[in-house]
Amino acid sequence: MASAPKANAVVGQSGGPTGVINASLVGVIEEARKHPEIENIYGAVHAVAGMVKDDFIDLGKLSAKTLQVVAASPSSAIGTSRDKPDEEYCAKIIKVFKKRNIRYFFYIGGNDSANTAYILNTMADEVNYDIRSFHIPKTVDNDLMVTDHCPGYGTAARFEACALMGDDLDNRALPGVKIDVLMGRDAGFLTAAAALGKQRDDDGPHLIYVPERVVSMEKFLGDVDDVCNKLGRCVIAVSEGICDDDGVTWAKKLTDQAETDAHGNIQLSGTGDLADFLAGQVKSKLKVGRVRADTFGYLQRSYPGMQSQVDVDEARWCGRHAVRFAMEEDNGSVAIKRTGDGKDYAVELFRTELKNVAEHTKSMPDEFINEEGNGVTDEFIEYAMPLVGELPKTEYLGGYPRI
Amino acid sequence: MASAPKANAVVGQSGGPTGVINASLVGVIEEARKHPEIENIYGAVHAVAGMVKDDFIDLGKLSAKTLQVVAASPSSAIGTSRDKPDEEYCAKIIKVFKKRNIRYFFYIGGNDSANTAYILNTMADEVNYDIRSFHIPKTVDNDLMVTDHCPGYGTAARFEACALMGDDLDNRALPGVKIDVLMGRDAGFLTAAAALGKQRDDDGPHLIYVPERVVSMEKFLGDVDDVCNKLGRCVIAVSEGICDDDGVTWAKKLTDQAETDAHGNIQLSGTGDLADFLAGQVKSKLKVGRVRADTFGYLQRSYPGMQSQVDVDEARWCGRHAVRFAMEEDNGSVAIKRTGDGKDYAVELFRTELKNVAEHTKSMPDEFINEEGNGVTDEFIEYAMPLVGELPKTEYLGGYPRI
């Protein structure tokens, strides 16, 4: 391996924003400044869209104070993009990189971003242009391979845990059926996090449906009816990607003209259809007076002041480590390994191949989902609880003994 | 005025839960314990519904630690109700009160609750049963008469301010049109609070629509188009109660079978219809690639860990003062007067007649709404800002000078 070249670096933020992707950005910036091999650290405005049109800002001169505020801010501070670069797109980027003498490429995002880093690295190799191409994991969905969990997940999971905690208290005060539709197109980790705030035995969510298990309308209504008969109310967390028993998503069935983005993903967020449909079914098929449904939408990934401390720290470390790895290696993706003994949570970071992260996504393992397919297991709680930080304690008195 | 009787007290929480109604409950409990005239302090489980069926818990023995957690918990810790008691209903309550020797009645809620307190007091007078009947203000809508503002508003307003702050950053990162539908059936105060988190000149929400001003679809689309042409994106906060230029709510126009509660209010929360409708209009009528819409739903009133300190303190004081007033007076509603000189925020509490609060609700004053009817004024910001507490600072770098 040749020694690290003296050149410029670029960092980009790709895909959906999260609560801590800016902490990873700051990690890259602060580590890059420590290495004389990196002459300038540029930010690509709107990710690959900025790279292809030579649209950069200089991140090297930001004050420590500014960086602290950036790290604490949700969303993607230098803009993001959902463009999926093809070979022609990447060829243009490499041309811009050559012009700017950019030989370090740090890309914060999901598996599509790892794939972009892989393609760019491969194409640069083909034209004998030496770049070091690194992917830094980010996703609220927690669906990346290799890594134990993804930066961005803990903070979004914290939002869900708190949201359901409050919503369950609201439902206790005014009982009925409450359906909450949460993010999670293919992986149920984020919806499952709705369970993390449960403090009392009969706390909701009482039912949790994730995309990894199909659920027929009959089964769904039967489950809701059972809980209502037992508790007189029911709080349900439903993943936006849940599927009917034929494997087709309920959302897809509901929409004739599904808007698609450039990755071919169906738009599930940003519409209340699924929630309203499920509420309508419960209203019409079960005898429940009060049925309400909410779709949490973009609040889940962008709510400020709600970072999980573990998550923001890890996101920053991942950014820093990408730069450190780039001093030694040609390319790679940063991943997290859990090293604690079960009681004490601890992690270490390591490098994995870009291809390992680029090609597939991860689903919830079977042991995280209950047998009925309508809830999570203790194994999931043990896995996810350290990632969200300490949650507020709440009290409800309505179940206290009567006088 | 006769001296305060030695008897039992009951407290109830009515209407929609808020983030600080439990702080008012705790205020009542802790003050009631100080007065030997009050022998026991009972909680009516599910408000008047508990009173009418003699369903009470004893609040007098809760530990200080429990009370602290209760005060910090969102929702209504002893349950709430949307029942609107008629004379027969109130007669039954008075019967229960007599049986239990309840002669102090504290009711935390909106104007309907003040009305219930008024009716109960009047009916008790008629049968020569001495009760002292007090209303403690609570509403996220901030629509009560007399009081400068309502406990519950500051915390909900804080939620909105933060939500739009994050959502605007998300929209900067992935530009397009974003429509957020916020609570506010008749009063726009809560939707207007979406403006409180603005930190940069071009921060969203760029447009705010409140129920106090009608807006035609033509005007709405024209406004959105103007902002998009100027900024390349547009974030919009819309009150669930906004009306077309014929004065009929858009929500009413959208629903054939509007669910109504016992107060005759149309259900606006708990459906994504309005948001989806507005997004559809923007998509089809304007040339915007990315249009998203969220309906914030019950998160707005029940999200835990998000209390405004000012709000939670005032809510508690209002609870305490109701008990103090009850030692001197027969009935009344607690109200807040702003006494600061504009720079320093300060308040004092006073008693007002139940009828003053029961009969009408308050709308946003004209000076809080801009001339165009699509935004708020500096006067509104000055009024509302002290109520939400310090907000997170954020940073967005995408507008920094290019290199």
Short description:
2 copies of one chain form a homodimer. Chain A is an alpha/beta fold and 403 residues long. Chain A folds into 2 domains: 199 residues, Rossmann fold; 172 residues, 3-Layer(aba) Sandwich (Rossmann fold).
**CATH top level class name of the largest domain in chain A:** Alpha Beta
Helical stretch tally of chain A: 14
CATH topology of the largest domain in chain A: Rossmann fold
- Principal-axis shape of chain A equals elongated
Number of strands of chain A: 11
Give the CATH architecture of the largest domain in chain A.
3-Layer(aba) Sandwich
Percent of residues in beta strands of chain A:
15-25%
Topology of chain A as a string of helices (H) and strands (E): EHEHEHHEHEHEHEHEHHEHHEEHH
Mean pLDDT of chain A: 94
Count of domain modules of chain A: 2
Biggest pleated sheet of chain A: 7 strands, mixed
Low-confidence stretches of chain A are 256-266
The percent range for helix content of chain A is 25-40%
Oligomerization? homodimer
Q: C-alpha Rg of chain A, in Å?
A: 22 Å
Q: Span from first to last CA of chain A?
A: 78 Å
Largest interface: A-B, 74 and 74 residues
Query: Largest beta sheet of chain A: what is the strand line-up?
Result: 3-2-1-4-5-10-11
Word description of this protein:
The structure is a homodimer of 403-residue chains. By secondary structure, the first copy, chain A, is of the alpha/beta class. The first copy, chain A, has two domains: 7-151 and 305-358, Rossmann fold; 155-301 and 363-387, Rossmann fold, CATH 3.40.50.460. Helix content of chain A is 38%, strand content 16%. In chain A, the strands form two sheets. In chain A, strands 3-2-1-4-5-10-11 form a seven-stranded mixed beta sheet, sandwiched between helices. A four-stranded parallel beta sheet of chain A has the order 7-8-6-9, with helices on both faces. In chain A, helix 1 packs antiparallel against helix 3, helix 1 (21-32) runs parallel beside helix 12 and helix 6 crosses helix 14 (378-388). The model of chain A is unreliable at 256-266 (pLDDT under 50). Chains A and B meet through strand 3, helix 3, helix 6, helix 10 and strand 9 of A and strand 3, helix 3, helix 6, helix 10 and strand 9 of B.
